[in-house]
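Exercise 7. Predict the structure of Intraflagellar transport protein 122 homolog from Pelagomonas calceolata.
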Amino acid sequence: GEPRVACGSHDGKVRIYDPVAGGAALVVINGAAERYSQVNALAAFKDPATGEPRVACAYEYDKKVFVYDPVAGGAALVVIDVGSRVYALAVFKDPATGEPRLACGCRGEKVRIYDPVAGVGRD
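Solution. The predicted structure, encoded as tokens:
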């Protein structure tokens, strides 16, 4: 696929751009726009089953992480209830399985780890 850049904003929208061609956003994901909640963190990964790109997004007040398809846009494919405000996201491969894992930096100095495809995790 072509390179893409995901940008979160204070208006609760995630915009997907072509960094080579420039111009307007190719896809706009409305996410939390109706709740007036800004984007706190983004992380990109590939769905291991399909190879398709995914974008994980944490909003200011939701205490959840939403996983979107940055090509098609639309509603979240997965919603992970973290139970705490999320301030940072990072994706890494599980050394035991090679599957993607999502690290969520949360309020209270905790890092919680989730499977971003299944939406399950642990502290």
